[in-house]
């Protein structure tokens, strides 16, 4: 049998049970129903739907409540069920809830601030931090969370190479660490700049990053032992997808890569742009440094590899 978290004004009710005008101890407690969507489309966006086993932490923010970091899980739809402790509401007051994804820590103990480094994440969903607030009451106990992405997405769509061919790419110059506050949803950018190494055989790939403005990001592609290099300005915003279409030209006369503005994929609209790269012979590849790069500018623009 599951335990129960009673919320609302339980302590007050016990102390003033004689005052039936304020609260009725005979009122039937209402079990909270938890629903979660992202941008009102019932999807977490690293994939097309919530995955079975995805878990959130739910907290009642009213003073003197006992519901801290309650563990809720979904079977793959937008309905979440308590793992151990259901939340029940007593009284007539509206109650405020907060929720974050992915769940961490222990029930009953605030999850606090989570440190992250995107280069150490096993999968995108580990760092696709979400946050939401909602209200409910005993008479309307349905908690409808509409989650917001607190990170940014950088999405590449590749074309011009044989289907199934491995495309290795590296991003240099991006800050890769920071903190996520599970109580407020706030992301604080760290200071560590490191290489982000990725690959794809499907023709598309994405990277989730903390919001930041970077004047000089280096994109390096490795395809069939050939290296293509470009630099570009990037302004990442939370809850935005910044999407680029990468067209790879491998003809004899000209070998280059053109990256052009693409459509927005699922997340909110973010600044996109186009980037031209040129082939670099491996033996003469220049060194890449992330030091001293300033803030970038908003908007789409055309950039040329150096």
Topology:
Blueprint: E1 3-8, H1 10-15, E2 30-31, E3 33-38, E4 55-60, E5 70-74, E6 79-82, E7 85-90, E8 95-101, E9 113-117, E10 130-136, E11 142-149, E12 152-159, E13 167-172, E14 177-181, E15 187-189, E16 196-200, E17 204-209, E18 212-223, E19 226-236, E20 240-250, E21 255-261, E22 268-269, E23 274-280, E24 302-304
Parallel strand pairs: 1-7, 3-11, 12-20, 20-22, 23-24
Antiparallel strand pairs: 2-7, 3-6, 4-5, 4-8, 5-6, 8-10, 9-14, 10-11, 12-17, 13-16, 13-18, 14-15, 18-19, 19-23, 20-21, 21-23
Secondary structure tally: strands: 24
Q: Any idea of the CATH topology of the largest domain? A: Immunoglobulin-like
* Average pLDDT score: 78
What's the story with the biggest beta sheet?
Answer: 11 strands, mixed
Multimeric state: single chain
Please indicate the count of domains.
Answer: 2
Distance from first to last alpha carbon: 65 Å
Describe the structure.
By secondary structure, the chain is mainly β. It has two domains: 3-149, Immunoglobulin-like (Sandwich); 152-304, Immunoglobulin-like. It is 2% helix and 48% strand. The chain has one helix and 24 strands. The protein has one helix spanning 10-15; strands at 3-8, 30-31, 33-38, 55-60, 70-74, 79-82, 85-90, 95-101, 113-117, 130-136, 142-149, 152-159, 167-172, 177-181, 187-189, 196-200, 204-209, 212-223, 226-236, 240-250, 255-261, 268-269, 274-280, 302-304. Strands 12, 13, 16, 17, 18, 19, 20, 21, 22, 23 and 24 form an eleven-stranded mixed sheet that branches. Strand 20 (240-250) and strand 21 form a beta hairpin. The protein is elongated and about 75 Å long. 36% of the residues are buried. Mean pLDDT is 78; it is low at 8-23 and 281-306.
